[in-house]
Amino acid sequence: MAGTGQDVVVQQLDQDEPDLLRDQFRQLLRYRGMLALGVALGLLGGLWTGLVGGESYVASSELSVRQVTLDPFSTGSSQLNRDVMGTERQTAGSNSVADLAQQKLGGGQTEEQLLSGLQVTNPPNTLVLRFTYTSTDPETAAERANGFAQAYLDYRYAQNKKIVDNTAKSYDSQLQPLRDRRDSLLKDIEGGRLAGRALDQALSDKSSLEITMSQISAKKAEVVSIDPTSGRIFRAATAPSEPSGPGLLMVLFLGAAVGLGFGLVIAWVRLIFDPTARSTADVVRALRAPVLGTLPGQRRQGPLLAEGRTAEEYRSMAFRLAYDQRFADRRRLLVVAPRGRNDVPAAVSVNLAASFAEMGHEVLLIEADLRQPTLSARLSTADGVRPGWARTPARGDGGWPTGLQIPIDAGESGAFDLVPGTRVRNAARALTSASATQLIAEADAPGSVVVVVAPPVLSYADAIALTDRVDGVLVVCDPHEVRREDLERIRELIRGAGGTVLGAVLHSFGGAKDEEKSGGSGGNGRKKNGRGRQQDRRTPVSEPYGPPPAPRSGGDDGQGRQPGSRAGGRSASRSSSQ
């Protein structure tokens, strides 16, 4: 049972949704220039970083920090140290320590310059400070790491010593009044000036003063006995033998990776604002019609009648159209392009006509391009037996259609008739004339197919004028060149004219120069069946039919055929090739 094009469209869109990201990634690869530019910039940046930045050496020294207490072995001192390690780390990187390090190291470096290469860290759950210094010279890195570690210890020693001295002085200030009072009482007692109850009171006060003085002296002795050292260096820094950080190759690799990421971002932004169709899914969404086939990629367009893989693609398109109910009902097909040259649509129409003829249909190919007709000239050397007058059909004096039908030998595919286009003064009037309508209506005969090729839709209104007579439209385009808005406009124009977009054919041929070179090449690319051989363009072509007869209005065309009749077309081709 024949399917409809809308079902195919829905199926294609459903298949594209899960692969949307993969499709977008494939589209990003189209912008290879941007990706290559990003990689090149990344490599240059990595090279500049590796060469200008120079090699750096890192040296580290570690010291253990101890809390200055009366009893360093008392419980809780370690936990207290862990709580203050953040403060100690900030102190180690302060300007005060840097000042002491500057005095020890010398070298004319300022505090800011010395601190620029220093990093002080505290490994988790430890009482350790790690002094890491980075320099372009390994000896300097080791010397300054050790210098900062020793400067920190000296600074903390001086701070602790100052605290001990101040505490001792505070105790001395407390002892001095007590000594004076004791000496005064002692002088009264020894001088015999006191007696009785007064003497007893003086002796009691003297004893209390001596006890208090003894206690204060004991505390002072404890403070003075405190070791003000805040730690010790247990691992001194040594000069590193190799530079730290990634080497030049790694820097280049990282630069290339960053550049590639930058190129992908730029390509993605370019993709977002790219107005072209880009992919098959975009064409399907814009036309609301299936893609019937994709012509194999070539550098330039080949012979008009294809062979090999391209010919098989055309046969697949013809079978899909034959089983499409919308086409099978009327068997009329209008082949058009959005803009530009008409070479590829002409090739598509010729090969579809040959494929329909191979399926057993009586095919009539109508060249409705009345502005730049080329099919008769391009098919002139197709089978080697074309009469001379058929290569140059009558010009615009007799109007169009002129009643001339040329039998085309499609090799093993069979034969079909061609109604060549003719330059006329008023193309719109000729396309909408009664004779043109009658010619297209020949598809109503059983087993007949009419294929019409018209100028680009958005360049001329000729295709729109034919839409209501042909109904089924096949759009031929390059998704990398056509705009999505152009495809949407084509769909609206065709629907507004009463036609239906049956599908699209995608291709990716070369530029305009390649098309111009290939557009003038004649010849039939399909395999011959032994009835005729392709001749060299320099060899004169035989003319068994003689000169062209004068056209007759309402009569025959000089070959015994009425205008619009294709009877005897295939037999004429066969007899002429013998």
Helix and strand topology:
Elements: H1 5-16, H2 20-28, H3 32-52, E1 57-65, H4 77-92, H5 95-105, H6 111-116, E2 118-121, E3 128-135, H7 138-190, H8 197-224, E4 231-235, H9 248-272, H10 280-287, E5 291-294, H11 308-322, H12 325-328, E6 332-336, H13 343-358, E7 362-367, H14 375-378, H15 388-391, E8 406-409, E9 415-419, H16 427-431, H17 434-440, E10 448-453, H18 462-470, E11 472-477, H19 484-496, E12 500-506, H20 512-519, H21 569-577
Helix pairs in contact: 3-9, 5-7, 7-8, 10-19, 11-13
Transmembrane segments: 31-51, 248-269
Region (Disordered): 511-578
Protein name: Lipopolysaccharide biosynthesis protein
Short description:
The protein contains 21 helices and 12 strands.
Give an overview of the whole structure.
The protein is an alpha/beta fold and 578 residues long. Helix content is 49%, strand content 12%. It has three domains: 25-53 and 246-272, no CATH class; 57-235, Bacterial polysaccharide co-polymerase-like, CATH 3.30.1890; 275-527, P-loop containing nucleotide triphosphate hydrolases (Rossmann fold, 3-Layer(aba) Sandwich), CATH 3.40.50.300. It has helices spanning 5-16, 20-28, 32-52, 77-92, 95-105, 111-116, 138-190, 197-224, 248-272, 280-287, 308-322, 325-328, 343-358, 375-378, 388-391, 427-431, 434-440, 462-470, 484-496, 512-519, 569-577; strands at 57-65, 118-121, 128-135, 231-235, 291-294, 332-336, 362-367, 406-409, 415-419, 448-453, 472-477, 500-506. An eight-stranded mixed β-sheet has the order 5-12-11-6-10-7-9-8, with helices on both faces. A four-stranded antiparallel β-sheet has the order 2-3-1-4.
